[in-house]
Amino acid sequence: MRKYIIKRVLISVLILFVVSFLIYLLMRMLPTSYVENLARQKSQQPGSKSFEEWMHQLSAAYGMDKGIVSGFFIWIGHAITGNFGDSWYYTIPVIDKFKNVIGVSVYMGVITMIFEIVIAIPLGIIAATHQYQTSDYVISIVALAGISLPTFFFASLLKLVFCVKLGWFDLYGLVGRNFEQLSTGKQILDMGYHLVLPIIVLVVISVGSLMRYTRTNMLEVLSQDYIRTARAKGLSEKKVIYHHAFRNTLIPLVTIIGGSLPGLFSGALITETLFGINGIGMVSYNAMVNGDIPFSMFYMVFIAILTLAGNLISDILYAVVDPRVRVS
Amino acid sequence: MSQNDDLNKDINNMGKVETEDATTRNEEYSIGDDRRVKSLSPGALVRRRFFRNRVAVIGLAILIFMFVFSFIGGVVSPYSQDQLFYRNEKTSKSYASVTKNDKYRYMADDASFDSVVQAQAMLAIVKKSPQFTFGDKTFNLTEEGKDFYSVAVNGKVIGLCYKEIFSSADGATKLDFATVYAGLKAYTNQATTFNADGKDYTIDSDGVVSKGGSEFGYISKYVVSASSSDVILSKDWKDALISAISNDDEVFKYKNEKGVEFNYELNYSPAKLIWSVKQEKETRVYDMYSQPSFKHPLGTDKNGMDMLTRLMYGGRVSLTIGFLVEIIATGLGVILGGLSGYFGGWVDMVIMRIVDVFYCIPSMPLIIILGAVMDALKVDPMIRMVYLMLILGFLGWPGIARLVRGQILSLREQEYMTATEATGLSVKRRIFRHLVPNVIPQLIVSMTMGLGGTIITEATLSFLGLGVKFPFASWGNIINDVNNTFVLTNYWFIWIPAGVLLLLTVLAFNLAGDGLRDAFDPRMNR
B460–A152: do the CB atoms touch at under 8 Å? Predict the structure, then answer.
């Protein structure tokens, strides 16, 4: 088991290394005119460094004056120590900005995930146990509709109905206008209030796939021989489903949920941007659109790490949870 | 449910159908004759299973509608994708303003008649005293006429206080002191002639001052001034306006010598004691955000283009991009996955590690950065669209490669593959006649489901302004307008139809994909 984990971790590190190289390559492949234009714009802001200083700083940080391979090693050497340089757009160190904004994204992600699990798994089981019945069709179609909904359209619709027509929520932002005057407890409530719509959007968009996954796996388990045996023994249907079937459905569910844990840190790019929530998604979107190279590089590497960590966790969990895998 | 169960069910169902016909044919075939049972080709079976799935058929129907709407609709529509519409809009522009003078105005012939002395004169008028002193001087105040006083020092008139205003005919020439003095004196005493500087003037009852037969100026309590300096107001116009004002009219019509009628709107502001005269002018503007009408069933967008036509062309772009991306991704995926699965060994190792790496590349950030770079370099919208397809296609193949590899790995172990090997078929024939056809169902399903995802990705990017760009329409960039809160609130017809079409199309692809999967392989549950 330990050998398996070590092997997987090593492979992941290797892949991360290659992916970072590709990301670095992308940065190096940006047209020089684009980079120089950005630096020139920066240098024209009041109190900014001169154009030469910007270019010099860039060369030093990314090894622009060196070859691609040695430049990559210079950059990765800095990056490993957590030094991703200063953000161009936010004018503070990238890591500091990241620490400031990651919190709200994680809270949002955790709340969304809890809702997702609480809604998707029971409904998925109901759909599977009532296969080819009305409830199954309704649940499946609703799940598919959720998957098919474009985030930005759904978010705009909710804004129109709940912010404009009903006036229940604010159109933008994480905090209300009088946030500073509120007591700590009320401040938390205020933030929660502003997160209602974004979380609804995230839950509706993401709940469908977990629901379908639950249903598929439940159906798979229900067609197994041991379920037939359990029924043949004369167990009650309730016991068959929740005792024998559901526990086995949990194996794939646990692995997929475990694998999506790192994703909680990646933020919701579109939703955060549309609702003006200052999380990692919106911050990095603004950075990328405004040509903030240091922040974009960091964000890409960060997302790559999260993806790898997700795959790693689900692989390892699969081996831990399912004894059949461990034997083979 | 296993495949055999389902197959048996199919066969049983067919049997039922057949029995009715069979009674008539019973004499022809013996009971054990194979021809008594109609057998269907695998393709026909799939079709049967697909069409029995009502939800999938609904999906297919929506898709057919979308294709007709996008590809035929664009041709049928009377408008083109970037045809601009105009409308004539009536705008009221401020033309002139009229003030009724109720306060004394002053005119000085001498610098000593300054504002302080003017104020003293005012006080004297109110007190009706004929004399006032200020500083070391004594001023004589004479009532020359109604609301008209002159101020004199030592017998010399240095200033005038008046309410009627004497202005020159062209409005620009400054009148000299003596003329004003004489003119006002005559007018306020209802005289019809006066003489100033040796010239004779006549005044009619309307206050028109003529010199030698031609109009020289006007005397009136109303001050009419044009709002812009290039407009010269004629006396005739002014008279008509003033009579309209004294009638408390709200609309003022004026016919000039050529018989052209102009309409003006009069507004009195009691706070400022000013009548403002507004002229209605027709201007030709883009017909933007016009409400749905017979001519434009879904209104027009912010550029004055027909929304319904934009939606049709947008659908064309969205569907075309979706298809091309899927074709690129599937092509790459089949080749690399096929190589990997068939050859195994180190080829498999290398390709699968490449797939792992591609899986980790954060596609959304990557595309956003490239979009921002293309924005900065002002890449042509058409070339941009091609880049977008290539990037999306190039990022999409790893999933398909994994799927193809997995399929081929399991198919390789099947008995019939051993049989093809045993019968000595060539490698080419074995791959293309026996292996690939068995992967195709999976591919079609994954392409159908993938199309929905690709369309959403393209729409999201276009929505963010990083995908398909104006002048090309795409459902995503049509909804982009919603970023303007005013549009979100007031113009539902701009963005809701595009969103609904997008949702329906993606949903239809997913439904049809689900249906196809069930039809191809009944063993696999949704």
Answer: yes
